[in-house]
């Protein structure tokens, strides 16, 4: 598969890569597919099928329910031709918007899968995204930001947008990954918080779940993140993840729902199915967040 070459912006993006384009070894992929069958990850037509996990968040700030699909950590994995299988799964969920928490791109592999997903989503739904650590692995992260915005995605970096759905107004805020060379993680967090209308239900998109305690200091109703990949290996009902980046062994925020006094945080286990460490009892997932009134 060749790098996508649709315009000058994407040419600049491809030139900013560190090193050439590499693809996962087919033999390793086949071995992992066999392991996924053993450990219960569904497979259809040779493609990994993510599980769908639904969370209900109740609030007094809405009069009508609003549904979001949350995606994270694609790492340039492919779900059918032009991401058709993944987009079809999302379409059946009837979301009001699609929210993404970074690492859709992958500096080691082809960029086509991320591009196909972003364009396919932006044609159908309002879409919001933030930069993860892998987006900042590019030499020119400004080019990456311009590229994401160019395909119709609202990229949030210390900003807060308002989404209107059937008369309901939701604040959707977002911040860059701490790996940003600008090193303004706290500044963006504060700016996003100040920009949000406190009367509206407010969502924060952030790549990093391990900053959970920090997020609770700000008036966000819901925080959506990724990065932890579900801890890679899980023992259901016993260990929710063995290892996660930036958290180490037995991470506290590997995946799932975490309830705090005035805030709910949901950590997406991610869509990546190729990795140096295979996923055990930890299928890729799509998160559905239903915000419903009391």
Topology:
Layout: H1 8-15, H2 26-38, E1 43-44, E2 47-48, E3 51-59, E4 66-71, H3 84-92, E5 97-100, H4 112-122, E6 127-129, H5 141-150, E7 154-155, E8 159-165, E9 168-174, H6 185-195, E10 201-205, H7 212-215, E11 222-225, E12 243-244, E13 248-249, E14 256-259, E15 264-267, E16 285-293
Parallel strand pairs: 3-16, 4-5, 5-6, 6-7, 9-10, 10-11, 11-15
Antiparallel strand pairs: 1-2, 4-16, 8-9, 12-13, 14-15
- Biggest sheet details: 6 strands, mixed
Report how far apart the termini are.
49 Å
Number of helices: 7
Tell me the radius of gyration. Answer: 18 Å
Order of helices and strands: HHEEEEHEHEHEEEHEHEEEEEE
* Unreliable sequence segments: 1-23, 37-46
Helix-and-strand structural type: alpha/beta
Write out the strand line-up for the largest beta sheet, numbering strands in chain order.
Answer: 3-16-4-5-6-7
The chain-level mean pLDDT equals 86
- Helix percentage: 10-25%
Estimate the global geometry from the Cα principal axes: globular
What is the number of beta strands? 16
Outline the structure in words:
The structure is a single chain. The strands form 4 sheets. The chain has a 6-stranded mixed sheet, with helices on one face. A 6-stranded mixed sheet has the order 8-9-10-11-15-14. The protein has a two-stranded antiparallel sheet with strand order 1-2. Helix content is 22%, strand content 24%. The protein has helices at 8-15, 26-38, 84-92, 112-122, 141-150, 185-195, 212-215; strands spanning 43-44, 47-48, 51-59, 66-71, 97-100, 127-129, 154-155, 159-165, 168-174, 201-205, 222-225, 243-244, 248-249, 256-259, 264-267, 285-293. Residues 1-23 and 37-46 have low confidence and may be disordered. Helix 3 (84-92) links the parallel strand 4 and strand 5 (97-100). The N and C termini lie far apart (49 Å). It is of the alpha/beta class and 294 residues long. It contains 7 helices and 16 strands.
């Amino acid at each position: 598969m060749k790098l996508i070459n649709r315009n000058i912006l994407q040419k600049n993006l491809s030139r900013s890569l560190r090193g050439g384009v590499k693809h996962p070894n087919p033999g390793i992929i086949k071995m992992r597919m066999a392991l996924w069958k053993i450990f219960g990850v569904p497979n259809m037509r040779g493609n990994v099928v993510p599980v769908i996990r639904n969370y209900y968040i109740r609030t007094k700030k809405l009069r009508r329910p609003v549904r979001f699909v949350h995606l994270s950590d694609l790492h340039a994995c492919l779900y059918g031709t032009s991401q058709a299988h993944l987009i079809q799964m999302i379409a059946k969920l009837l979301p009001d918007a699609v929210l993404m928490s970074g690492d859709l791109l992958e500096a080691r592999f082809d960029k086509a899968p991320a591009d196909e997903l972003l364009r396919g989503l932006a044609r159908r739904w309002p879409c919001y995204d933030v930069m993860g650590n892998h987006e900042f692995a590019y030499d020119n992260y400004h080019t990456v930001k311009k590229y994401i915005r160019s395909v119709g995605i609202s990229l949030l970096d210390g900003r807060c947008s308002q989404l209107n759905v059937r008369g309901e107004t939701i604040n959707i805020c977002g911040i860059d990954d701490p790996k940003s060379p600008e090193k303004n993680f706290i500044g963006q967090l504060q700016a996003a918080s100040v920009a949000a209308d406190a009367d509206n239900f407010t969502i924060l998109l952030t790549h990093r779940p391990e900053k959970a305690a920090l997020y609770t200091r700000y008036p966000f109703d819901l925080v959506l993140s990724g990065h932890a990949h579900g801890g890679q290996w899980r023992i259901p009902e016993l260990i929710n993840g063995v290892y996660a980046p930036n958290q180490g062994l037995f991470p506290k925020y590997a995946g799932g729902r975490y309830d705090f006094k005035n805030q709910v945080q949901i950590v997406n286990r991610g869509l990546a199915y190729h990795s140096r460490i295979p996923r055990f009892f930890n299928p890729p997932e799509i998160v559905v967040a239903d915000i419903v009134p009391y």
